[in-house]
Specification:
Layout (H helix, E strand, L loop, with lengths): L1 H19 L4 E6 L5 E2 L5 E9 L3 E2 L5 E5 L3 E5 L2 E4 L5 E10 L5 E10 L4 E4 L7 E3 L4 E4 L5 E2 L2 E4 L4 E4 L6 E4 L2 E5 L6 E5 L25 E4 L4 E4 L1 E4 L4 E5 L4 E4 L2 E3 L4 E4 L8 E3 L2 E3 L3 E5 L25 E4 L8 E4 L5 E4 L3 E4 L4 E4 L4 E4 L4 E4 L2 E4 L4 E4 L25 E4 L4 E2 L12
Parallel strand pairs: 2-9, 10-12, 11-14, 12-15, 13-16, 14-17, 15-18, 16-19, 17-20, 18-21, 19-22, 20-23, 21-24, 22-25, 23-26, 24-27, 25-28, 28-29, 29-31, 30-33, 31-34, 32-35, 33-36, 34-37, 35-38
Antiparallel strand pairs: 1-3, 3-4, 3-7, 5-6, 5-8, 8-9, 38-39
Bound molecules: calcium ion (CA) (3 copies).
Length: 423
Amino acid sequence: MRGLKYVRYVLVGVLFLSLAGCIPIVKITAPQNGATFGFGDVITFTGTGRDIMEGDLTGSSLVWESSIDGPIGTGISIATSTLQQGVHTITLSATNSNNQTGTANITITVGEPPFVVISDDIDSNTTWEGGTIYVIKAFDFWVNATLEIEPGAIIKFDPSEGPAMNVDGTVIANGTPAEPIIFTAYKDDEHGGDTNGDGSVTAPLPGDWDGIYIQNNGSVFSYCEFYYGGDTVLEPWDCIATITNATFAHNSGSALDASTALTGTVITGNTFFDNERPLYINTTFDLDDSNTFENPDDPSETNTYNGVFVEYPDDIGNHISWEETDVAFVLDDNDLWVLDYASLTLGDTVVVKFTPDSTINHYGNIFSGTNVFFTSYKDDDYKGDTNGDGSLTTPMDGDWNGIYNDTTFVYEAWPNILYDEIH
Ligand SMILES: [Ca+2]
Ligand SMILES: [Ca+2]
Ligand SMILES: [Ca+2]
């Protein structure tokens, strides 16, 4: 009898050892083997790993891996929307406390991303379609022909591969109020969804891409929206362009730099907010009051340096009018000359601010509407804080040169000239 008992112990022992030696049994219950998904779809993976001694394994005992993307999560169930395009072998590994691992595999397919990658210059006339996302992945990218962009198209710039668009041809981008054309960062998931395929791991920032630089007459940007650019976001360089009803927001540097644009350039109906510097102009075209320098949904959101900056002021040799009343015009360390056959007309309540060494010299006329003021860049009492320092600095007499009359050879002493050298 004792021998029989001994045999029983041995059998139990062998059974125990053999069970302990069993690897976990692994099953993937979802998705089905061979399933197909769209790019960016949320895919939920569910599975079990059962160990005869330890029961159902959970948590970090269960590891999911993709043959393309590597580890993708742990646990009984995981969800991801960031798998790359392609045929993935998905492996679930279950490991028990004896470090014995069982695995199961399925194959799934993730479809094409719903965007078009632009990796070459545009050398023949081209149309970009509405409802499509175009990702610029081309360094030193040039548009050398006519590029027509339809309403509802979204253009995203991947800064690591394509931070800018240079235009030596023509861009015709006529959006509509309902279907604007969007120019934004690759990381911007708010427009066109998660194009960069990382879910919400990354977020766009001002300056994520550079800008659009135009060198040829005739480009049009209407009902376009420009987000997260930097340096300069849109710049007609030594050419004529039309920029109307566009929105510039969350940009570093200058949003719209028309400081070298030519006579005939039109800048109307645009909205600027949350930019470093919204708008540069020069002295060759008019600016009316139709542009807006705050967020229409939150008027407290303006721009860091909330003014219209007048750069490279060549002589005013024509009849030019400035009528913007939301913010001040800023003459930045420059002499501005109004020639004798020309004039500068300032609309009612327009304010012109001056940095040190800035002057207006005029032979021709300066026509002022009512409540026009010429004052220091530091003067926040007129059109608010233009110099971007809140109330840190205050204006003083002598802050800028003044307005010099080249016909009478004296500085003007109009009562609406504040803080210049002769006060
Ligand atoms: Ca993303
Ligand atoms: Ca305005
Ligand atoms: Ca200030």
